[in-house]
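Side project, low priority. Logging it here so it doesn't get lost.
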Amino acid sequence: MSTPIAMVVPLLLASLAAQHPIPQAPSFRMPMPAELPLATESRDGEVLARGDDYKARFRADGVTVTARTGRDGAPASLHLRTAGATIDGNSLELPRGEFALAEARCERGGPAFAERYDLTDHDLEQSFVFTTLATRGELAIDVAVDTTLAVRPDRDGRSFQLGDDRAGFRFDRAVAIDARGARCELDLGWHGSGYRLVVPAAFVTAATLPLVVDPVLTPNVTVSTLPIENSDLVWNPTAQRFLAVFDWVFSANDRDIQAVAFDAVGTVLSTCVIDDTVINARNPSIAYDAGQDRLLVVYEFGSPATVFGQLLVGNGTATIGPRFEIAGPATGAIEASDPDVGGNDVPGGNVQHFMVAWTHRFPSGSGVVGRAVGGNGTLGPMQTLSVGGEYAPSISQSRRGSDHWLVVVADQFSPSDTDVRVFVVNAATLLSTLDAWLDASSANVRHPEVSPPIFDASGGTSYAVAGHIVAASADVWVRMVTVGIGGLSLASQQNLTQLETSIPALLAAQQLWPRVATDGRVFAIAYQEVLAGASTLDTYAALMQPLGGSLRLVEGRIPLRTTAVDERGGGVACDPMRSLFAAGSIVRSATANGLDVTTFVPTRPTLRATGCGGLTATASGQSLPGSTMTFALDGNTFGGFLGGSPSLPIPLSGCTCTLGAGPQLLATSPFTLVVPASASVVGAVVSVQGFDFGIGSCLQSFRLTDTFDVQVR
């Protein structure tokens, strides 16, 4: 019978293809900061600007400009200060005070002239604007330049360069322009500690005011890639959008934080700069609080490391207030690092704030400390969760107004043995009410991550905790934690790699850096894999379902991104309403770098109640083109499966079972459904129903199972 089935199934699927097929959710790349428009901001008495390849800071003491040099590049920066100005040999009073920002122009005035910078994506146009002149004659302006970059004057005397061909700055195109449009090109040469602009007396005498003296400063950058690090994802159920945060390397000691909002099909809806100062900002985490419709991004800032927070409006389009310090030297820590944040998906309940936890370096060691952060940035008291070498906390998202968060931490028993510990933290007090060791073996379990909860009928909340075991062939380690009325219960440890495959080459691979999310029914575990002897990482996912007090593998090794370039962990989040997961991959190659996001849905079939007599069956595999699904009757029974188009339940004489499929094919158990590797079958729906012989009321000889409705995605 196998030959007819192999022939019938592809024809059946092709004939059932929907008129409007459901497309596969795409992979798409987040826009990088250098691809975004010019960003400007006034903050704390200074103006900040970011273009494609530069950042500028305008303060009362002058202008600091930094060129992007990338991961390995030493900082390339300079400080500009108007040092003096004369007309016909007489000194002019210089502009003082703070700069004011108006769209893409940064300016400050003075009694004699104004100092102005017009900003574009690519350069800064420096201008000195004279609206009045008490006398006429030769006009000279001296600009002091404080920099460690080497000076390279051009032979024409009208331009010069600071730095080298890889990264630096070019000064050129200096010109004087009057109100009539008359122009005079100016020499622009280096004079020891800066440059001088000289407008000839004849031009000044004949000029119609205002007179503008105007050189151009252009960052000279040849770094082609923007290394991205440390990303995180969250789902906002109110605005129906995903949000990604990540840091990108501006130079060897300067990283910035960026947020991007996007919908389920990858349309970028908004971007928001979290931190683009010249101080190192890195390792962001993001959470959403539905009660106040706000987001909180936490990240490490500066050295010694300090944990900062930045509130955003719920849809991620704008920041709320200035960034604020959550923990650091000012709070008694030698340094504070590895921050994570938990929020709440549903308004109400006991969760009216975010929870932030971090690695707190005490004078005598390290531990994990947490505190509440309100929607207006108010800080609750710090609560010590653990001490004695524990670090790198991961916090669950809260749901349905639950009264706790789950926090997992790494505990370094020795340099080659890291264990995993879990804490149940009261949402109102942030005090730990329960704790347990998830791993206290001699294995080295690193980078533990905890998911949001799945709720069961008894009111318990179950979480999946994943990490990877550092060994010759690193494997992903998974364990389920359930918080119930009776306290804390732990399922047995499971090796995801061994559950997914028995192929020796795959068992010898390394699976690393798992991230976990849930749609309320299954847990999705996204991870990176590198095969033995290979040099690049690929991104995969597995779906696991709580069943009988443990986790059952539903789908394994779902390929999310498997290209020839290197991919690193990039966070995972889920839209529970549509069971739509989004997993990020930080892609690195010689010519490109960015955060790519792949969306995917569990390919579980829909189950219709058509069976009777207690006969059940299981389905496994994926309903994707080119994949297979396997159906098997449960128990020791003799029977098989019917397959065909979905049909209205057809009653059978003498029993409560109904036919829910075709039938257009017949197969023994187990039955393998081969999905053709063709886009033409996407959207097709096939129904599969199991049966057995020799028992049951249907025609006094058989039973039927419920019907699986399988849609090709």
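Brief comment: The helical segments are 2-15, 201-206, 496-500, 504-507.
Revisit when time allows.
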